[in-house]
Design a protein that fits this description.
The complex is a heterotrimer.
Chain A: H1 3-32, H2 39-57, H3 61-87, H4 94-117, E1 132-137, E2 140-145, H5 146-168, H6 170-180, H7 182-187, H8 192-217, H9 225-239, H10 247-264, H11 267-284
Antiparallel strand pairs in A: 1-2
Chain B: E1 6-15, E2 18-28, E3 33-37, H1 44-51, E4 59-64, E5 67-68, H2 74-80, E6 82-84, H3 97-105, H4 112-126, H5 141-154, E7 159-163, H6 171-186, E8 190-194, H7 198-204, E9 207-212, E10 215-220, H8 222-227, H9 229-236
Parallel strand pairs in B: 3-8, 3-9, 6-7, 7-8
Antiparallel strand pairs in B: 1-2, 1-4, 4-5, 9-10
Chain C: H1 8-26, H2 30-56, H3 64-79, H4 85-107, H5 112-132, E1 142-143, H6 150-174, H7 176-186, H8 188-193, H9 198-224, E2 226-227, H10 229-233, H11 235-248, H12 254-273, H13 278-295, H14 299-304, H15 306-313, H16 320-323
Helix pairs in contact in C: 1-6, 2-6, 2-9, 2-11, 2-12, 3-4, 3-9, 4-9, 6-7, 6-9, 7-9, 11-12, 11-13
The chains are: A mainly alpha, B alpha/beta, C mainly alpha.
C-alpha cells in the first residue's frame, strides 16, 4: 500500500510520455482519417537521430529537440502527398489502403534502421539523467527522476502549444474546419493540400521529438517501434477515435493503470492485463471512455 | 376498416439537444401513396430513418402490419417487407449492376440461380437490363437512382420508402420515374415518398403529410394541403423575420 | 452464374492442383519438396487472409494469432496429452474458431482500420501470453516428436491448402455468401437495407478465415518439430502474408496465390544468395507493399492479367429470354 503513491506518480510520468506519443497521432487521425501504422517507427527514428546527434555533437539531447523537429517536419511534409494520393484513390477502401501504406512505410523504416543501426540498445545521456527529486513526509516518500519530470514538462508544453495552435491561429482554424467538413473547408478558401501537409509534418516532427525524449528516459533500439505503436493505439482508442480532448486523460489513465499493475504483477503480465482492459473497454464502449469517438 | 399497413404512433427522435422529429403520428393503408413534404431540415429523412430501422425512436412506436417494429434493425424490416432507397444513392460501386440486384434478391431467393433469375426480372422492370454487367460505379446519376429503386424492389417488399428519387434528374428521366412509381402502385405497392419537386409529389400522392421543425403541421389530400395556410407559411416564411 | 464446367479460373486452378499432386512422383530431392511444402503454406496463409481483407474489407493484421493457436494447440495436445496428430490438428482448428468468435464480436463492430490495429494489438497479446505461460514452454518453445517424412508433409500441406482454396472458391465466388460479403465491404449501411446483417456475416467470414489458418499452423508445428512464440506468433508471418496478398491482388483468391508464389520465390532466392543482407529483406518487403498500394492497388493480378482473366471471368449469363438467341 505504501507503494501506491509512488506508483501513481510513476503512472503520471509514464502517462505524460503517452500523451506526447498520442496527441499528434490523434490529431492526424482526426483530420486526415489516417491511422499511421508507422507511428512507433517515427519515434524510433527520432530516438536514433537524437542518439547520434548527441554522440557526434556532444550536445544535450534536450537542446537538440528543435533540430530533430525540423528535420522530421521536412520529412513528413515531403511524404504526405504520397499518402494523399493513396487516400484519393477510387479503388476499394482508401482509408484501409492508406493504413497498409503506412504499414509498408514502417517496415521500410525498421529495416533501414536495422541495416544502419544494428540491434543493440542504447540510451541517450543527458544532464538531467542522474538527478532526481526526493520527497519525504513521515512514512510517505516519493522519488521523481528529473528526466521524467522533464518529460512531463515537455508533454505539457506540446499540449499547450497544440491547443494554442488549434484555437487561436488561422492554421488551427483551417485544421478544425477540415476535420469537420473537407469539401466545405476547401470551398471556403482553406488550402486543403497545404494544411494537410503541414499537419502531417507537425505530427512527424512532434513524434520524432518524443522519440528523443524516450531515448533519454527509457532506451533506444531498432525494435522499439511496435511497442510504442501499441501504446499510441491504446490511448487513442481509450480517448475515443478522433477525440483530441480525451487524449491527456486517457494517456494519464493508461500510465497510472500500468504503473499500479506493475506494483503487483510482473512486467509480462502487466502488459497482458493492460491488453485485457483495452479489450473490455472496446466491448463495452467502442466510442472510448468519453463516448465521443467515432465507431 | 382494414388494419393499416403502417402505423406511426407519437414518434419523436431526439439527438442530444436537437428534436428532429416531434410527436408525429400517422397511418397508411395498403396500396396508397403518401407524400412526405416539408422545408429543408423539417425532419423528413430522420422520420424515414426511424421507420426503416436506422434509428430507434426516442419516444413512440412504429407498427408494420400490426407488429411493433420500433428500433428493429434495417435488415429485420427488410425481411418483413420494407424496402427503402437512400437520398444519397448507395450503389455497391465495385460490383456489377446485376450483382447489386442479386444481393437484394437473396432475401427471397436464397439460391444463386433463382436470385439471378429474379434479378433479371427487376432489371427488365426498371429498364436497366442493357447495363447489367457494367460496374455500378459507372452508371449515370439517373441509372444509379434506377438501381437504387431496383435494389429495393428486388426485396419483393409490400411497402416502399422512396427518398428523393427524382432529385437531380432531368424532366424526361423524372417522367419515366413517375411512370415507374405509378406502375408499382397499380401492382398494389404501398409507398411513402419524400420529394421536394412539387409537381411530382402532388401528381402521384393520394395523401400528403407536411412536416416543419419535426412536427406534423398538416395531413390530407394534395388539394387540401396546398390550400392550408400553415403549410403556405411554412414554405414561404413569416412576413416579418 | 457461369456453369461449373465453364468457370475457366476454376478449371485452371484444378489443373494446377493436379499438377502439384504429381510433383513427388518426379521430384525426389527432399530440399525441393520442403520448399514446395513451405510455398503451399504461404499460399494458404495469403488465401485465408484474403477472405477478410479482400472480400470483407477488414485487413487482419493479427492473422498469425490463428496460425500460432493451431501450432501450439497441436503441439500441446500431441506432446502433453498424447493425442494423435489428426485429432490434435482438428482441435486446433476448433480452438481457432472459438478464438475468432471471441476476438471478432467486439472488434468487427468497428471500422476496417480500427479493426486492423485492434487485432494487431490482440495478436501481440497472445504472443506475449505464449511467452510467459508455463505450459507453452515460454520463450524456449516446444519440441514435438520428430516425424521426418517430406512426402507426407508435402501431401498433407497441399491437401489442406488445396481443400481450403476450393472450399473458399465455392463459398466466396459461387455461393451467395461471397457476394454478400462484398456488399458489406462496399457499403455496409446500404447492405443492411437489403436484409443483410453485417456483424453476423463478418464474424462468419472471420471464423472461416481462422480455421484453415490454424490447421496450417498445426501441420507446420508437426513438420518443423520445434515451435516458439517468435516463429509461430510473430509479426513476420502476417507481415509477409499481407505483402503477398496486396502484391498479388486482393479479393480474388487467385491474386494471393500468385503473390505468395512470387514473393516466396523471391524470398528463397534472396536467402540463398544475399543472406548476409538479411535486414534488407524487410526493407524490400516494405517497399513492395508501399509501391503496390500506390501504383497497383489491384495487385499483380489486376495490373497484368486483367485482360486474360477478365475474359475468363466474364459472367456468361444473359436475360433468360435472350439466352437462347445469343451464345457467349
Amino acid at each position: 500500500m505504501e507503494l501506491l503513491p509512488q506508483a501513481l506518480v510513476d503512472g503520471i510520468m509514464l502517462g505524460a510520455i503517452y500523451i506526447a506519443i498520442a496527441i499528434a497521432f490523434s490529431l492526424v487521425f482526426g483530420v486526415l482519417h489516417v491511422i499511421d501504422f508507422a507511428v512507433g517507427e517515427w519515434i524510433m527514428l527520432g530516438a536514433f537521430a537524437g542518439f547520434y546527434l548527441n554522440l557526434w555533437g556532444k550536445v544535450d539531447p534536450f537542446l537538440m529537440l528543435p533540430i530533430v523537429f525540423i528535420v522530421f517536419f521536412g520529412l513528413g511534409y515531403l511524404l504526405q502527398p504520397v499518402i494523399q494520393r493513396v487516400l484519393s484513390g477510387h479503388k476499394g477502401n482508401p482509408l484501409l489502403m492508406a493504413l497498409v501504406f503506412t504499414f509498408g512505410l514502417g517496415m521500410i523504416f525498421r529495416g533501414t534502421a536495422q541495416t544502419f543501426f544494428g540491434f543493440y540498445s542504447h540510451s541517450i545521456p543527458s544532464h538531467f539523467s542522474n538527478g532526481s527529486f526526493y520527497f519525504e513526509k513521515g512514512s510517505f516518500f516519493l522519488t521523481i527522476s528529473s528526466v521524467r519530470l522533464a518529460g512531463l514538462v515537455y508533454s505539457g508544453v506540446i499540449t499547450l502549444i497544440l491547443n494554442y495552435l488549434l484555437r487561436y491561429t488561422d492554421f488551427g482554424l483551417a485544421v478544425r474546419a477540415l476535420a469537420q467538413n473537407k469539401e466545405a473547408a476547401g470551398l471556403m478558401g482553406v488550402n486543403n493540400r497545404r494544411t494537410n501537409k503541414v499537419l502531417y509534418a507537425l505530427y512527424t516532427g512532434i513524434t520524432a521529438m518524443t522519440g528523443v525524449l524516450i531515448g533519454v528516459i527509457i532506451s533506444v533500439n531498432t525494435k522499439m517501434g511496435a511497442e510504442y505503436s501499441i501504446f499510441a493505439f491504446f490511448v487513442v482508442v481509450l480517448a475515443g477515435m478522433g477525440y483530441l480532448a480525451g487524449v491527456p486523460a486517457a494517456a494519464l489513465l493508461l500510465g497510472i493503470i500500468q504503473s499500479v499493475f506493475l506494483v503487483y504483477l510482473d512486467p509480462g503480465w502487466t502488459l497482458l492485463a493492460v491488453f485485457g482492459i483495452l479489450y473490455l473497454i472496446l466491448v463495452v464502449s467502442p466510442t472510448g471512455l468519453f463516448g465521443k469517438g467515432w465507431v | 376498416m382494414a388494419e393499416p399497413i403502417l402505423r406511426v404512433d407519437s414518434v419523436s427522435k431526439i439527438f442530444g439537444g436537437l428534436t428532429a422529429v416531434n410527436d408525429v403520428s400517422f397511418e397508411m393503408q395498403a396500396g396508397e401513396i403518401l407524400g412526405l413534404i416539408g422545408p429543408n431540415g423539417a425532419g423528413k429523412t430522420t422520420l424515414f430513418n426511424v421507420v426503416s430501422g436506422y434509428y430507434a425512436p426516442s419516444h413512440g412506436k412504429v407498427f408494420f402490419k400490426g407488429k411493433d417494429v420500433s428500433g428493429k434493425p434495417p435488415y429485420a424490416l427488410a425481411a418483413l417487407g420494407v424496402g427503402r432507397t437512400f437520398q444519397v444513392v448507395k450503389p455497391f460501386g465495385g460490383l456489377s449492376v446485376l450483382e447489386n440486384i442479386i444481393i437484394a434478391s437473396f432475401l427471397k431467393h436464397p439460391r444463386r440461380a433463382h436470385a439471378e433469375e429474379a434479378a433479371w426480372g427487376v432489371l427488365e422492370f426498371t429498364g436497366l437490363a442493357d447495363r447489367a454487367h457494367i460496374p455500378a460505379a459507372s452508371l449515370t446519376l439517373a441509372g444509379r437512382k434506377r438501381l437504387e429503386i431496383g435494389k429495393a424492389l428486388a426485396l419483393e417488399p409490400s411497402f416502399l420508402l422512396l427518398d428523393e428519387v427524382v432529385a437531380g434528374l432531368n424532366p424526361t428521366e423524372t417522367d419515366r420515374t413517375i411512370e415507374l412509381i405509378l406502375k408499382l402502385k397499380s401492382l398494389g405497392m404501398t409507398i411513402l415518398i419524400v420529394e421536394h419537386i412539387m409537381r411530382v409529389i402532388m401528381s402521384i400522392s393520394d395523401r400528403l403529410l407536411v412536416l416543419n421543425f419535426g412536427q406534423m403541421i398538416a395531413q390530407g389530400s394534395p388539394a387540401e394541403v396546398a390550400g392550408d395556410p400553415s403549410v403556405i407559411q411554412a414554405y414561404l416564411g413569416e412576413e416579418h423575420e | 452464374m457461369t456453369p461449373l464446367l465453364k468457370d475457366r479460373r476454376l478449371i485452371v486452378s484444378a489443373l494446377v492442383f493436379l499438377l502439384f499432386l504429381g510433383i513427388p512422383a518426379v521430384v525426389h530431392d527432399t530440399f525441393a519438396l520442403r520448399m514446395c511444402t513451405e510455398a503451399f503454406m504461404w499460399i494458404g496463409l495469403a488465401v485465408t487472409l484474403d477472405v477478410m481483407a479482400g472480400y470483407t474489407g477488414y485487413l487482419n493484421f493479427g492473422h498469425q494469432a490463428f496460425f500460432g493457436i493451431g501450432a501450439y494447440a497441436t503441439a500441446i495436445l500431441m506432446m502433453k496429452a498424447h493425442w494423435p496428430f489428426p485429432l490434435a490438428l482438428a482441435a486446433g482448428g476448433a480452438l481457432a474458431a472459438v478464438a475468432a468468435l471471441i476476438i471478432g464480436i467486439p472488434t468487427l463492430r468497428l471500422r476496417g482500420s480500427y479493426f486492423a490495429i485492434a487485432v494487431w494489438a490482440l495478436a501481440r497479446a497472445i504472443q506475449q501470453f505464449a511467452l510467459i505461460a508455463a505450459w507453452t514452454g515460454g520463450p524456449d518453445g516446444m519440441r514435438l516428436t520428430a516425424f521426418l517424412d517430406p512426402q507426407f508433409f508435402f501431401y498433407v500441406m497441399l491437401g489442406i491448402v488445396g481443400a481450403t482454396f476450393f472450399a473458399l472458391w465455392f463459398l466466396l465466388e459461387r455461393a451467395p455468401f461471397g457476394l454478400k460479403l462484398k456488399a458489406i465491404r462496399e457499403d455496409q449501411e446500404s447492405a443492411k437495407a437489403l436484409g443483410l446483417n453485417p456483424t453476423h456475416l463478418k464474424i462468419q467470414a472471420f471464423i472461416l478465415s481462422a480455421i484453415p489458418t490454424a490447421l496450417i499452423g498445426g501441420v507446420f508445428a508437426y513438420w518443423v518439430t520445434f515451435i516458439d512464440p517468435g516463429s509461430t506468433l510473430g509479426d513476420l508471418i502476417s507481415d509477409q502474408a499481407i505483402v503477398m496478398l496486396v502484391f498479388g491482388g486482393m479479393g480474388t483468391l487467385i491474386g494471393p496465390v500468385i503473390g505468395a508464389v512470387l514473393i516466396f520465390s523471391f524470398k528463397t532466392l534472396f536467402w540463398a544468395y544475399l543472406s548476409q543482407y538479411e535486414v534488407l529483406y524487410i526493407i524490400i518487403l516494405g517497399a513492395v507493399i508501399a509501391a503496390s498500394v500506390v501504383f497497383m492497388p489491384d495487385g499483380v493480378l489486376g495490373k497484368f492479367m486483367r485482360k486474360g482473366l477478365r475474359r475468363a471471368a466474364r459472367p456468361e449469363s444473359a436475360p433468360p429470354a435472350a439466352a437462347a438467341g445469343k451464345e457467349a
